[in-house]
Amino acid sequence: MQDLQTLRAFITVAREGSVSRAAEKLHLTQPAVSLKLKQLQESLGLALFQRRPQGLKLTADGYALLPAAERTLAAMAAFEQSAQALHSTLRGRLKIGTIVDPEFIRLGAFLHRLVGRAPQLETELQHGMSGSVLKWIRRGELDVGFYLAPSGEGPGDDSQDVAHRELTQFHYHVIAPAGWSGRLTRTDWPSLAALPWIVTPQESVHHRLLQGVLQPQGLAPNGVAQVDQEACMLDLVRAGVGLSLARDALAMAERQERGLVVVEGVRLPCSLNFVWQHQRGDEPVIVMAECNEDTNASLDDKALVGRAEWIGLPDIGTYLRARVDSGANTSSLSAKDITRFERDGEDWVRFRLGITDDDIVVDKVRNEWIEAPVERRVRIVQAAGSESRPVVSLLMTLGSIREPVEFTLNDRTHLNFPVLLGRRFLMDIALIDVAETYLHPRPEFPGGRPAAEAEQDDLNDQEEEDAE
């Protein structure tokens, strides 16, 4: 078996065609290189070089063996590199606290990135309620975890020992059994608290959110049942037991699919957070996990969308064509007859969809009044002057994407698309392929056209670009 230095001498002389130049590259003396070549040829019983006035040239046997020698050196270099990498490879076990459903916290994408970055790291998952995960982290029983809290609060002032990073914001809605609309004529908190409630333990974010709005008013929910799992809670609401809280996407899906009542005008802001012990923030395993929970870190879990797509608006009950444009900052929904009013001290708007006869929508919503709370107002400056436009949050679906999206309301009937999706929607969840259109099927709604007909509608679409 030949040593690596001998193989390296053989390869270098073959490339340089000269013992002197090879010796210079290898930082050896010429006699040392010549000796290695002599020993190699003697051990193999083969002549590998022939002398010429210009230097050394490989024989036929030398040419035949050169690729194998190069592969051997390359394999050894890869072996040494892999061995060196093991010194810096993160090992051990990461205990992760999970909450609600895996899809909501994007657990699959999180673990996929983690395994790719630290293949030697074992993961152990422990599922529980949000408050339980926080307690386990403070005790050191978990390394990191997911935690739900009112927006902007994180673990709270009494948890200075826990660091956190806010991942996303959303809302909880009050949901009621189908057919309870008559019992919800009054939606102030004293009236709602008096109705039957499905309550949750103190460790649950539902408990903390309700306590945050009821306790200052000296109120408490009229609890008739207590559950510690979201699935059980939904089953009891469907069975007509009482009210409960549900995440916005879940609440809208239950209303659409099962007819549950979503109480209008009542929303509790919440946030999803990633948490860990503050004093452990510099540990490599914690740094890896915290940096890994970065939706900008990987493209694997981002949806691909075309420059035009069908979207669904479950809050309104229709599909609409949307132009996708990363050049626009915010998203926009075509609206007309926009009227501002106040409800329970909050700013609301009432409007109709701004659509033309050519726009494809569910017919029953064409002239339907829509009401929504105003998230904020934006000032648009144009050549003709400036105007203030309301921004509302509506649940939107696009393929597998199901997210609350903020829409600026303005009349877009002079444009080709009633909806514009800007980069604030695209950020972290989608990429645009500008060469494609309608990569995702059109969602279906009661009273609307079948999704199969969308293909013909797409063909009829002239796909002219909006001038915006």
Tell me the number of helical segments per DSSP (H or I, 4 or more residues long). Answer: 13
Q: What is the total tally of β strands?
A: 21
Overall shape: it is: elongated
The CATH topology of the largest domain: D-Maltodextrin-Binding Protein, domain 2
Radius of gyration using CA atoms only: 32 Å
Q: Distance between the terminal alpha carbons, to the nearest Å? A: 73 Å
**For the residues shown, what is the average pLDDT?**
85
The main β sheet shows up as: 9 strands, mixed
Helix/strand class = alpha/beta
Number of domains: 3
- Under the CATH scheme, which class of the largest domain? Alpha Beta
Kindly estimate the percentage of residues that lie in beta strands according to DSSP.
25-35%
Low-pLDDT stretches are 295-300, 462-468
CATH architecture of the largest domain: 3-Layer(aba) Sandwich
Kindly state the percentage of residues in helix. 25-40%
